[in-house]
Specification:
single chain; alpha/beta; 2 domains; 5-stranded mixed beta sheet; 24 helices; globular
């Protein structure tokens, strides 16, 4: 293909801008929502300990968060601004992909609107994590590959390499996209790209960008491999293919099903879409890998802006002679977005949400083996953190000054430890320690273990490690996850072995 055959298609910035503004306003309206999400505390802690890697993720997200905190501080807006802007960018990228695939105004609108109304994206762009940047970088990478095919300019593989490298430094799931595209190239006429020096140069660039993280992994004994193995064995809930696809359909909004099925039709059966068939094979290849791995359905989310765009182009052509269906489809997507938005964003009060969820009969799984509470995990993990830190502070300040000077605060997981680190300074608390993921690598901060405030945990473990322990407080929030509710705050004294000897056994990578 060449660019000349597509020059008449222009980007409808105003149309996409309206969708992007709607996304921006919506996310700003629910900015504070139910509170900070568990993982946000961990990313905040990681941004205070910048490195070339962490047990469970590469460094890019932590660097981005550290940069924006340097400028804007630690407010909800500061922490969540970049994910919101990433969401706006993905809407535009979806529209641009639709344009590149031959879509006009309606296709671009439909592609952007589908991104807006998909719960998987509404939630991803609501809070800080690797995921908003993962979605954006997958979409940009797909866009560059489309441009390579359209224009024949193989030098664009260098740009692809930069994007893929940044993607790897954000989340190693970018490897799945690379695998899918490689399979797609092998199975289609585009396999000629594999003979291009520019293709391999782009791969080399991606590898060079990723080298610092590989070096970090080697230096620390490949902790991410241990983390992944542990999570697969003890944490991840194995879903059947039917359950995986059913959950995925809910997460991308059931009303978008015709759109992404039309996208698959475009890639596999459409005369114009055959030039881009590699994406259809990439979709199937990645899907098969995720099904075999019992992965969480949301891992597959970054493929959908591309699929929505392709489906939008296909439906725009199908509706050429029945234009009345175009506004009907737009209104249907808006309606679907309104129905499913409360499952992704903290729009309703918890009690109202519970009634709404029961009314619709929609139950979302976390993809993990934890016992669920009254709220789905992605909402439950926004409750109880400030109260927990306040409870720990009350216990801490009842201790004699001599005990406070040598007191450590131990959290069972990075959520508890991260919340103490984030809010603890205003309560006069020391930073927390934990054996969970990168907190274990950060160590025990010079503490001896003579006096330790322990958040939750088994009393039998306290008796095993300490000479004495006393229940000093209780953490209770009906909306939090069960394993974060009704937790005792313990004061433990007299560690039986030096903390430096105990620490290796406290490692918990999962």
């Amino acid at each position: 293909m060449n660019d000349a055959g597509r020059s008449s298609y222009r980007l409808h910035v105003g149309t996409l801008g309206l969708v992007a503004i709607a996304s921006l306003v919506l996310h700003l309206l629910v900015l504070r929502g139910y509170g900070f999400f568990r993982d946000e505390f961990y990313f905040l802690a990681c941004s205070d300990h910048l490195a070339f890697g962490y047990v469970d993720h590469p460094p890019l997200s932590a660097v981005l968060l550290a940069a924006i905190r340097l400028v804007l501080g630690d407010s909800f807006l500061a922490v969540r601004l970049l994910p919101i802007l990433a969401g706006v960018a993905v809407i535009f990228v979806a529209g641009i992909i639709a344009r590149e695939l031959g879509g006009g105004r309606f296709a671009q609108l439909l592609a952007g609107l589908a991104v807006l109304v998909a719960p998987i994206f509404l939630f991803a762009f609501h809070f800080f994590s690797m995921n908003p940047f993962d979605i954006l970088l997958w979409s940009l990478a797909a866009l560059v590959v489309i441009r390579v095919i359209r224009t024949g300019d193989e030098r664009l593989w260098l740009l692809f390499g930069v994007i893929a490298g940044l993607g790897l430094m954000n989340k190693i799931s970018m490897l799945f996209l690379g695998f899918g595209l490689f399979v797609g190239l092998l199975l289609t006429r585009q396999r000629k790209q594999l003979l291009s020096g520019w293709f391999w140069a782009g791969g080399a660039i991606a590898g060079l960008i990723f080298i610092p993280h590989i070096a970090w992994q080697m230096h620390h004994g490949w902790p991410t491999l241990e983390f992944m193995a542990n999570a697969q064995q003890s944490k991840m809930l194995a879903l059947s293919p039917v359950a995986f696809l059913g959950q995925l359909m809910l997460e991308v909004n059931p009303f978008t099903l015709p759109l992404w099925l039309a996208g698959l039709y475009f890639f596999f059966l459409d005369r114009e879409g055959r030039h881009f068939r590699l994406f259809g094979w990439a979709f199937l290849a990645i899907l098969i890998v995720f099904l075999l791995q019992s992965a969480k359905p949301y891992y597959f989310g970054p493929m959908f802006p591309l699929l929505f765009a392709a489906g939008a182009v296909q439906l725009e052509r199908a509706f050429t002679r029945v234009r009345v269906l175009k506004p009907v489809l737009v209104l249907l997507l808006v309606f679907a977005g309104l129905i499913f938005a409360p499952f992704a964003l903290p729009i309703l009060s918890p009690e109202t949400f519970i009634r709404y969820s029961n009314l619709l009969g929609v139950k979302l799984t976390s993809g993990e083996k934890h016992r669920m509470g009254v709220l789905p995990q992605h909402f439950a993990d926004m409750f109880g953190w400030e109260e927990m830190v306040s409870g720990v502070a009350r216990v801490y300040h009842t201790l004699p000054e001599s005990d406070r000077e040598r007191c450590a605060i131990f959290g069972q997981n990075y959520g508890e430890a991260g919340a103490v680190d984030f809010w603890g300074n205003s309560h006069g608390l020391p930073n927390a320690i934990s054996g969970h993921n990168n907190y274990w690598l950060w160590g025990f901060n010079g503490h001896t273990g003579e006096v330790v405030i322990v958040i939750g945990g088994k009393e039998s473990d306290l008796a095993r490690f300490f000479q004495s322990h006393t229940a000093a407080g209780l953490i209770n929030n009906p909306y939090s996850m069960p394993y974060e509710n009704n937790l005792t705050i313990w004061v433990a004294r007299g560690i039986r072995k030096p903390l430096k000897d105990v620490w290796p056994g406290l490692k918990s990578f999962n």
